[in-house]
Target: Acetate kinase
Amino acid sequence: MKVLVLNAGSSSQKSCLYDLPEGAFPETAAEPIWEAMVDWGIHPDYGQLTVTAQGTEHEIRLSRDTPNHGLEEMLATLVQGETPVLGALTEISIVGHRVVHGGDRYCQATLIDEAVKQTIEELIPLAPNHNPAHLEEILGVEAVLGDVPQVAVFDTAFHTSIPAAAATYPIPYDWFEKGIRRYGFHGISHRYCAQQAATLVGKPLESLRMITAHLGNGCSLTAVRGGESVNTTMGFTPLEGLMMGTRSGSIDPAIPLYLMTQMGVEASEVDRLLNKQSGLKGIFGPSGDLREILQAREGGDERARLAFEMYVLRLQGAIAALIPQLGGLDVLAFTAGVGENSAAVRSATCAGFEFLGLELDESKNQGSAKNSRISTANSGVAVVVVHAQEDWAIARECWQLARCP
Model:
């Protein structure tokens, strides 16, 4: 079964093709047989399509007026040019899309029909940087591949189980009835991380009280109990919660009002500052890349030191805030770019939870820690590192729906 996974962003599009068996789903993640990336931010005059398949990497320049943002050209590389892996596009059995916002209407992966497309369109005001790209991509696949089944895998779906007390903001209740509530994001990653973490500790997911930490440029935590999300740090938008690469995370809500009413900053500029110029970048200055910050901190840069300390302090505080709702903590799981690769972040974060009996094995933490347990055998909390495999998780959802639509 050939499963195409498409992950559209506001200025880029990642894609991969898996060749999956018709029988049992593989226990371990398979490598895609083809990968592609379209990046419209690399140059003002053109987009760059980079395709990798069969050990070959090929780059193609795309005109700015290319229809469907290069989707047709990208799919053509599956059957022709330098990287063919299919005899014909009709070999594609099903297409899966990561969709950032599904509101509270979808709790699982869903075959796309007119109602689903309408919902994605209606939710554009809540995800203006992503949902338009998802919808355009879905329509583009229809134009190129015809009536091939398409699946929406929503980032918000895992969090539809959050109870009302956690989902509702302490503002006039009629705002909640109008859709202003905690939705949560990174749900595909959090669900996959929780499942893999349970496997690593050798216990049923439903028996564990777990916090999953998706730490990349965007960062969020999810409290998982009984295999379900019961709370998460991102909220109405992905801006809420932890300090991130370029996003502020939670701040006093009066600050944007003050900037607009007292300092004359336009609302659009406030939005840009909080999403693109804050977080680690806002404090450190040169960038929001934690690798650069750690290197600068080693060199004695005070703002790098401050940025790191703030990042860890807010991360620890958010973890601690979720524990009472879980009634304790059995597993802390780190995933995504920072979570998987920064031993310094894991070590500093876990040091704040020694009172829970958490003991980190620093030799394991400093080593190649992906898909492994890095706490000691006697630790009161199991700490694991899970390699993020969002595309694989989407492919699994497609495989299941293709077999049992």
Observations:
- The chain has two domains: 2-154, 201-386.
- The two ends are 15 Å apart (CA to CA).
- The chain has a mean pLDDT of 92.
